[in-house]
Amino acid sequence: MTENIYYKKLDWKILPKNIHDELFILAHSSENIRPTNRRGRDNYHHYLLPSSIEQWCRSNLPIDHRYVCRLQRFFDTDHIPKHIDQSRTATFNYLLSETGPITNWFIEDQLIESIIIPQHQWYYVNVSITHSVNHIDQERIALCVFMPHDSEYPTSSSIKI
Fold first, then answer.
1. Which domains occur in the chain, in start order?
2. At how many degrees (to 10) do helices 51-60 and 17-27 cross?
């Protein structure tokens, strides 16, 4: 059996309820945090995390200083079209909103893999391959951990998947 190169369930520590709740509130409060990246779309934001949550991530997840931790929110859309992320190769996502959206991967417009990522579970997601997200009923909120392209890539000693 070959290894799945598109996604992988991770055995990382789940978020405490108080952090989950705080992130969910922050995702809906433009007064508390400002988007750091909109990618030219009005329905997609990445948010900086409060320092206490950033510290929890750095203390409880197998990441080092090169990784960025952000809150991601898609809203006012039912899908995210096919694309390849330009700023990163992979992301580690923890879905805060309800399960439902389907992440799909494509090669030359042919669907090759799909998954419904469950809520409250860490997943490695390969974003260097054409992918889309469909069936977003209301919004999709996730805690995302990734290494931007302008940093050195992870080694087996810096992160364990």
1. 7-146 (2.60.120.10)
2. 140
